[in-house]
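note to self: dont lose this again. the chain is below, predicted strucutre after it. 232 aa total, dont forget to put it in the shared folder this time
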Amino acid sequence: MSSESKKHQSVWVSIKAPPPPNLLPGDIRTTEATNIRAMLAEYNILRQSWSRGSVLVLLMLLQSASSFILDYFQELLKSNVVIVLFLTMLVGAGGNAGNQCAVHVIRGLAVGKVDGRKNVPGLILSEILTGACTASAMSIIAYLRVRGTSSTAANDAFAISMSLFIIVTSSCMIGTVLPLVLYHLGLDPAHAGPSIQVIMDVLGVAITCVVCQTMIGQGNELDGSGLENNSK
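---
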């Protein structure tokens, strides 16, 4: 344990430890206030706020990139509101799946169960296969969810379920690779947790729009051309 960790531990122990029986109530309050001030001085709130805030601001700006994607596909979203209704479900599933893989790898690196320099391809492949199996089951459930609780066409529900499959599978791959990349770069792999959530928010929106544009958009165009031909 490092000296800084020992200092933090000693401060917390001094706060939580019961006061000596010979102290008066006023002395107890003074001692607790002194311990709290010492803890705050050791913790350095400004430094912690800066280190955390800089990462959060960067992630916020990265996450705002999804607005450009939504703006580009706004015509698709206007004509197919069902995509918007289930968009949070899709990107949320991707973020959750990627975060699970990231936590698994981060914990493995911390306790020594995962070697960041040996058998990395095997680890990545196993996580991708696991993610594909999980994504298959989730896609079936998503299809039934979309079809069973809304007046959505089968083609629309299939496009959403296919989007979910691609999002979850890719999220598992990225969630596995990202902590390993940070580990090799000498950075804290724990940063992969919030990062994968933001990455999959942006990537999930892009995957959903592209898949639905391919499957639903073309279907609407064909329907429209068929109606025009019939009218002629």
